[in-house]
TrEMBL record:
Protein's UniProt keywords contain Iron-sulfur: yes
Start and end residues of each Radical SAM core domain: 113-336
Known catalytic reactions: L-lysine = D-beta-lysine
Lineage of source species: Bacteria, Pseudomonadati, Pseudomonadota, Gammaproteobacteria, Pseudomonadales
Species whose genome carries this gene: Marinobacter profundi
Required co-factors: pyridoxal 5'-phosphate; [4Fe-4S] cluster
Protein's recorded name: L-lysine 2,3-aminomutase
Record-listed N6-(pyridoxal phosphate)lysine modification sites: 339
Length: 364
């Protein structure tokens, strides 16, 4: 029987409840050797590729995530998201370092304006976990650090743009910085009359649920701005009881919880699994929001799922789930004001527009 918690790291995980989120982050596994040894995987088979991938984009996996990985199973979907492989060295045409052309949309250091009514703040380059498919795995965070003077420039841009009504905290993972800094950002943004919302894109409440602590909830409750948190969950095994408790605390503080997933080969490219993910999220108080087609970032081509397969999965999800649990299949295209929904090709399958409309109504 495959064990979910690796025996070799049980001792490291036993005190998770007593450690702060900062300690858990600091204690993360950061080498391929430690990752393979802790999970009982043969280094003769995996270490060469893992080491090569690690040199390109370093390993970072915190203890709470490790506890959810099946011991000895190289195909575990949570492991696949964090284990470097030899394919990361391959140069494949069409897979680029900046697939969303973000470097062309930076009016101030750390501020990205890709959309008319929203602006994105790169709060930090640090993440709690390094996902191998990350579309920002090559982003030059060192050149976009928000030092105090750069923060003032970014705020000046926001004050001078009344058409912006929402600021998105991104990164890296914005919740990887201190609550004191985040509270300062919220106070500054609350003073800009045109702003209505702050949206926080974060994986931390799932990766290290202890991050949802009293000091985080305090600055959320104190702000006049509506807070929306967009989580990033790709597989139902990512959600355990500790995560559910953390999400319940966020909801109690008035946070609207949404989820976006990335469609990943070998992780979640299965309609039954995606349906279970939507049901699991909704049971935890999170609304499935987007299912992203893969962004063609260099070093991660082995995760890509064809558009034809993605559309077939989305059509099957529509048949399996009520409409409010079906995430929108989208792609981000540089230069467009928002995400672009992928045409599911229902009419190409012989389904008329009226039949498609009635099918959607039935599934609401």
């Amino acid at each position: 029987m495959i064990q979910r918690t690796p025996a070799r790291i049980e001792a490291r995980l036993a005190n998770n409840d007593n450690r702060t989120w900062q300690q858990l982050l600091s204690d993360s596994v950061t080498t391929p050797e430690a990752l393979l040894a802790g999970l009982g995987l043969d280094p003769a088979r995996w270490l060469g590729g893992a080491t090569a991938g690690h040199r390109l984009f370093p390993v970072r996996v915190p203890g709470p995530w490790l506890a959810r990985i099946r011991h000895g199973d190289p195909d575990d979907p949570l492991l696949r998201q964090v284990l470097p492989l030899h394919q990361e060295q391959e140069q494949v045409p069409g897979y680029v370092r900046d697939p969303l052309d973000e470097l062309a949309a930076t009016p101030a250091t750390g501020l990205i304006r890709k959309y008319r009514s929203r602006a994105l703040l790169m709060i930090t380059g640090q993440c709690a976990i390094n996902c191998r498919y990350c579309f920002r795995r090559h982003f030059p965070y060192g050149e976009h650090r928000l030092a105090p003077e750069e923060r003032e420039r970014a705020l000046a841009v926001l004050r001078a743009a009344p058409e912006i009504n929402e600021v998105i905290f991104s990164g890296g993972d914005p919740l990887a910085v201190s609550d004191r800094l985040l509270a300062r950002w919220m106070a500054e943004l609350s003073g800009i009359a045109s702003l209505q919302r702050v949206r926080i894109h974060s994986r931390l409440p799932v990766v290290i649920p202890q991050r949802v602590c009293d000091s985080l909830l305090a600055w959320i409750r104190q702000s006049r701005l509506q807070v929306v948190m967009v989580l990033h969950v790709n597989h139902p095994a990512e959600i355990d009881d500790e995560v559910r408790t953390a999400l319940a605390r966020l909801r109690a503080a008035g946070v609207t919880l949404l989820n976006q997933s990335v469609l990943l080969q070998g992780v979640n490219d299965d309609a039954a699994l995606l349906a279970t993910l939507s049901e699991t999220l909704f049971a935890a108080g999170v609304l499935p929001y987007y299912l992203h087609a893969f962004d063609p970032v260099a070093g991660a081509h082995h995760f890509d799922v064809s558009d034809q397969r993605a559309r077939a999965l989305a059509r099957e999800l529509q048949a399996r789930l009520p409409g409010f649990l079906v995430p929108r299949l989208v792609r981000e295209i540089p230069g467009r004001d928002g995400k672009t929904p992928l045409d599911l090709g229902l009419e190409d399958d012989g389904t008329s527009a009226e039949e498609a409309r009635m099918s959607n109504l039935v599934n609401l």
